[in-house]
């Protein structure tokens, strides 16, 4: 028994090394204000560290396996933590995509002497721990220990859905999970999609269509729709801005909602999101220069659609919503400028924003924190409702700033800008917070249309229809048909009731 306790001490000390080196840096961006937040973070650090404890327990049962696994585990962890601390990046499917498509010259630029020293220090610690393990005897019935530990890991890993997500986003599981998602995304990209049959009603010589997909922005927190706070100070001063306050989303999380925005899929034909192309493929086929500029994660349900564009730009590929701050949508603007500078006659730019995703403060520069006090804890229920709403409303004001900046770039062009959030957000109503729970507040996303004077002059019938339709109720699947309509294209076997640029007569 004494020998077993010595083995257990070895595993515990090895886990402490990993926890300090790798796990703790994952919580650098978590706000710490008071004992409650310290305890909350402490619980998550311990919860994530238990996964390492179980892995190390199993691997170290055999000293030969330990001799390979422990140093390797520490070296990989040290590399991950270095980039987490120095560059605020982590392993994500998009980061893996970047890694697998880089060359030696580009890779060498991120290998520094400080990284090498950090890895070597942890390699030395790993070797020392291996020497310790070799001096210990293997526990009796090692196969039984391995079986029990494996069962404990499986049970623990799937015990709690919220904890499950947190574990998946942190070392070591985030490497496994990111690799799984990366492989799945590659498979999704390779699946064939058929272009729906369409008719070109009018050909454009010059036209810019900007589609900005928002995140978690609910319509009733936009002052354009009557909210008591001035959350749209810039857009409210602009001409040619039309808000659609009655848009309805059948889905309340990004993975389910975005494919409906991009394709002909609806409640009657959900299969179209898997079998047909997005509107980007159709416009590209009609001579539009198409670009997907994203400040979001790449979801497995819509992985194929960015690849239908001429250009794909991933901002912040190494960021995760679980662990990062300083993730701002104004970073979309320089990339948008680069695309417009190419001077194509016809452009479709799809801007996928991080918008109002929790943790709200992470996505709003401090200068835009207009409403105070704001949240100071990553656990939403550890904040006051007032602070949560203030932080959320700050994201809406910041979106107002970003969207106004997008519009300012299109004023002298024949252009239309369509902003549509993927879904709304719950802010404590009936005990619900955030989204994906299906609460009613999450089903009403914000939607704003802006058109340039040149567009209005060239297509007065479309503008007349837009104003006539602005108070109508639409599902979010209107976007697919309306984008094509703005370009003078109609998909076969559809009706005008889901096109905001065409008047529907009963």
How would you sum up this structure, described in words?
By secondary structure, the protein is an alpha/beta fold. The protein folds into 2 domains: 2-189, no CATH class; 199-498, Alkaline Phosphatase, subunit A (3-Layer(aba) Sandwich), CATH 3.40.720. Helix content is 45%, strand content 11%. The protein contains 17 helices and 13 strands. The protein has helices at 2-23, 35-59, 63-87, 93-100, 104-108, 113-134, 142-157, 161-168, 173-190, 254-262, 272-275, 279-285, 332-340, 385-408, 453-458, 460-469, 478-486, and strands spanning 198-200, 207-214, 241-243, 247-248, 289-294, 311-314, 346-352, 415-421, 426-427, 433-434, 447-451, 474-475, 489-491. The strands form 4 sheets. The chain has a 7-stranded mixed beta sheet, sandwiched between helices. The chain has a two-stranded antiparallel ribbon with strand order 1-13. A hairpin with a 5-residue loop joins strand 9 (426-427) and strand 10. The protein is elongated, with a radius of gyration of 26 Å.
